[in-house]
Amino acid sequence: MRAACVTTPGVVEVRDFPRPVPEPNQVLVEMRYASICGSDVHIVFDGFHNPELLGRPGYPGHEGVGIVVRSENSDIEVGRPVLTVPHGQRGGCFAEYQAVDASHVIVLQDGVDLRRLLLAQQLGTTLFGMKKFLPADTPVERMPHTAAVIGAGSSGLFYLQHLIARGVEVIVADLDKDRLAIAERLGAARTVLEPVESISDVVLDATGGVGADLVIEAAGYDLARAAAVEAARIRGTVGFFGYPESKGNAPFPVERSFRKSLTMEWVNGTQSEAGLLSFRAAVEAIDTGMIEVDHCLEKMFDLEDTPAALAAARDHGHGAAKVGIVMPGSGD
Predict the structure, then answer these.
(1) Span 88-105, mean pLDDT?
(2) Residue 88: its pLDDT value, please?
(3) Distance linking the first and last C-alpha atoms of the chain
């Protein structure tokens, strides 16, 4: 089979590999589509890789859909379409075939649009985040009026839609005008093109100097996390979704956070949620049209061009909200 692999840190190649053999309680999936997560970019280019997995086929891809072609689990039949949601350090989605634990596979309905349901993995992580940032049982009197989302990639645009559905006015910031155009179309109350404007200045202006009730950082940069703290009101909530920018300790405005008495939540480990409930809810949200995902499917690369796809993702998608990979078996 053909698969991409990280040969050395920062270098990705597409090579021939033997087809994986599933172990007990695994399934072999013929992949149709995969997409690139921000964490994949950090793993490939920023030193977050596992040295033992250099050269492993498909690593670090963990957002994918395909068809089961062999099953070593009695509950999952051959021929079923599936969403694969392995842990990031166990991912193998950037390959024609992937052996994945049955516990990290969600069986889909026959005849579904796999291209669109590919986004259920990323969407699921944001639904998991919302359970921490703004739980469904939040009392009316504690609901935020104004929120800010920093980062208008796929995750930030999903958070925008979640918040609008809850009746919150949302200001969105990003470095790219094309991404901000998508945010405007999806209903952002205002967009901020950094660094021409400052998200904290715009939020303070929009709230009479008070700040946002909720700020969600979905960019993965230390400067974005600092801006989130600055944009939040006193005793507001800041939700950190973005991946660490570098390993080890990082600069963070601790004193400012302390003075504001902020509530902070960090998101990690959606794949460990009992029953994979957030991923299942994401599948339903896409199926029913509750969440729009087509804007995340505009920049797709063939498997052979995975190195270029990862480079594009590192460069903010060249204005696209998401970068995806089309497998040879997709028929596209």
Answers:
(1) 94
(2) 80
(3) 18
**Superfamily of domain 123-266 in the CATH hierarchy:** NAD(P)-binding Rossmann-like Domain (3.40.50.720)
Q: Does domain 2-118+297-330 have CATH number 3.40.50.12370?
A: no
Residues 252 and 222 sit within 8 Å (Cβ to Cβ): yes
* Residue 152 dihedral angles phi and psi, to the nearest 5°: -115, 35
Largest CA distance in the chain: 62
* pLDDT at position 161 over 90: yes
pLDDT at 293 over 90: yes
The pLDDT score that the predictor gives to residue 329 is 84
The two three-digit tokens of residue 238, written as one number: 């800041």
